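re the bet — no i am not wrong, look at it urself. input seq straight from the record:
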Amino acid sequence: MNLSEVRRAVRSGEWTRPTAGLAPGYLQANLVILPKRMAYDFLLFCVRNPKPCPLLEVTDPGCPVPKKTAPGADLRLDLPRYRVYRNGEWVEEVTDIEAYWREDAVSFLLGCSFTFESLLIEGGIPVRHIEENKNVPMYRTHLPCKPAGMFAGPLVVSMRPLKSKDLIRAVEITSRHPRVHGAPVQVGDPEAIGITDLDRPDYGDAVTVHPGEIPAFWACGVTPQAVAVASRPEWMITHSPGHMFITERRR
């Protein structure tokens, strides 16, 4: 599907699955929505943690339209799935958030690694979760983010297994795209960042890691959801992991 077809399918509820592989060439984004009074603290958190939270846009309070990255879109309707958090607890997953919208809501769009996956594929590097029609596996690490105001918590990473011959090329490709997490933060040693079992991701689906393949880990925009659990904001809405907002900007 092209971008307009994806937008129609998502808004109508026809597409409620992960967005990996959709609309190649366009920036995909993670979403965080908070009350205005918490927005400065979270903005500062993003500035201090640019690997997991690379800012693409911050909206005006109460405005659901991302005027910079997708002026024809509506953040209340144009993601396949959303998660609603209250006091740090995930309480509901929904396909639109019109009923939850607030006049003081400030939306943050953060770059997503799904954006660079088409570049890996174009470079002859397989992307396993796309091959297996699964959501990307994501893991909480024991690495702390730099705190800001009320927000603190662990780094979350996404994982893609790579053949050793593809590793350097994958690092080269992704390092050119800091707006969507850039180069990996860890390669080859999950336990070094607190991951003990690749078959049990904290978010998404486990994928096959073939003998001889090397797990590579990228900073992930699900980090704010782990931070929400740790920091317990009274109200927060995010994308459901893997279910991204697709902007109208080219990568």
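see?? The chain has six helices and eleven strands. told u. also Helices lie at 3-12, 36-48, 114-122, 128-131, 164-175, 223-231. so pay up
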